[in-house]
Amino acid sequence: MVAIAIVKIRNLFAVTMLTGIYSLLAASLFVVMDAVDVALTEAAVGAGIMIILMLGTLALTTSKEKNHGKGQNLLALVVVFITGGGLIYGTLDMPHYGDPEAPAHTHLSPHFTQESVDEIGIPNMVTSVLASYRGIDTLGEAVVIYAAAVGVLLVLGSGAVRRRRKDDPKANPKANGGEERS
Amino acid sequence: MNQYVVLRVITKLMIPVILLYGLYIQFHGEYSPGGGFQAGIIFAAGFVIYSLIYGLDKAQEAISPEAAHILAALGVLLYIGIGIASFFLGGNFLEYKVLLPDDHAGETFGIIGIELGVGITVATVALTLFYSFAGRERD
After folding, report:
1. Which residue of A37, A61, A136 is in closest CB contact with B33?
2. Nearest Cα residue in chain B from A181
3. Is residue B17 less than 8 Å (CB to CB) from chain A?
4. Is B27 exposed, middle or buried (0-12, 13-18, 19+ CB in 10 A)?
5. Whole-structure pTM over 0.90, yes or no?
6. Which ipTM was obtained for this model?
7. B69 touches chain A (CB under 8 A)
8. What are the structural domain ranges in chain B?
């Protein structure tokens, strides 16, 4: 229902707030499914930092979505229905939630749940899987986050660059823009 | 936001708690939910609140954008460094148990180290993103 509201509402400020609510709902869903680590991440990133960044973007642009007219694209509707139908058809083959016979629960999970405390020596399995068994995976995530920051800096520049230009109005904005970021 | 006394006072009370909670999530991640990613975001959120209430300049006095860039790179380097350290101590890349004589102590040491690296990177990257969005003006 929140998702439908996000699509329908044209005021982007309201949409941003609803996105935060959606993240919080997703986080509580994760808590219900006992994935507390994921819930914590979702609540902190989705409902916290992301909303701040979106509000910052809105402050730079405008909070009204442009109305592109009411033209309805039938082909898009067909594509969406086919994709959604395919995805739902795909989930039919998946094991039920909590099914002890599910493939994921017969290979690695018993090893992680039963032996990770002996092997790694720390009680939180999620951390030992994340940091030790899948250490290279997590390294990749850290590098991706760093790359995201580098990308944003290259496109937007850091906050300090703009300030220096404001202090020195005589400086040529074009000459000042590119050099100091490197 | 200088005129909102309530906001200023409450923020002053809240920020130490937020930062402490971030550190708790960071270093208690082996026993309770949490870890570098969550801790970094929470830690950055403290600074974001500070700059929302007291202004971007004050926040950038605390952690300048340049320092944030350097710290972000250092976090990733710490992670890779621990991987390479275990590499040279006779294990595989990121095989922490060779770091210390005791297997469990080595694993814990390595995990805390890489989580710290992740935490530093995430916190400073979130801060960098916020700085670059908030530091611009409408064109």
Report:
1. A37
2. B66
3. no
4. middle
5. no
6. 0.77
7. yes
8. 5-134
